[in-house]
Structure formats: C-alpha cells, structure tokens
Write a structure and sequence with these properties.
single chain; 120 residues; mainly alpha; 4 helices; 0% strand
C-alpha cells in the first residue's frame, strides 16, 4: 500500500508469517493450481486482486501532453519508496496543479503521492 511506509507493511507481514500465515503471490488459480486444491489445502483463504490495466476515456484532449494513467504515475514512486535505486522520477507532480479523474484507492494514492511530491 502507498498509505503506509514499506517498513510498516513488511513488519506486519513478518508478524503474520510468524503466526503461521502463508502468503502465496503470483499464483494463477486455474493454471498453476486448481481452486479445489487451494480449498483442500487451506483453513481459510483471502484472495486479493486488483486491476493494473487502465481504462481509457475517449474524451477530447485525452492525447494532450501531461495526461497519464495512475499506475504509470505511481510505479516509479512506489519503487523509490521501496528503496530501489531511482535517481529521477520520470513523472513528478512537484510544483504542478494536479487533477485526478477517478476514485477508489488508486485515486487516493494518486492524490497522496502528488501531495508528497510537492504538487500545488
């Protein structure tokens, strides 16, 4: 999540793993493992999925410079927050007026990230 520092999230994951919770990421249910296998091998399941492909808006001006999809904007910032060696941000909101179209967690992440980067 972008609302908590990566260290806080990692600490919580470590605590849950120490309690016996198993995390399996990057698993394609139906391809790598059957749904029945997951059900049979688990006391409980939590499926966490998200949309990483954007939905474009067919509106006038959409192709103008400075209009970006959320994940395109958030990805490098998240990598920097994670501690990856990022020497520059290809998309930065610093000193800009930012308009976020959309909502939910991703929209809120764009707003929070823009403010942290120094948007007006």
């Amino acid at each position: 999540t972008m609302k908590l520092s990566k260290k806080v999230v990692q600490r919580r994951l470590d605590l849950m793993a120490a309690e016996g919770i198993q995390f399996k990421t990057g698993v394609n249910i139906g391809k790598d493992v059957t749904a029945q296998e997951v059900k049979d091998d688990s006391d409980a399941m939590l499926l966490c999925m998200g949309a990483t492909w954007p939905r474009d808006l067919p509106i006038e001006g959409r192709s103008l410079e400075g209009i970006h999809f959320a994940m395109e904007f958030l990805q490098t910032w998240q990598q920097k927050q994670h501690g990856d060696a990022i020497d520059h941000l290809p998309l930065s909101a610093k000193g800009l007026d930012v308009l976020v179209i959309g909502g939910g967690d991703t929209g809120c992440d764009c707003i929070g990230t823009s403010l942290r980067q120094g948007a007006n």
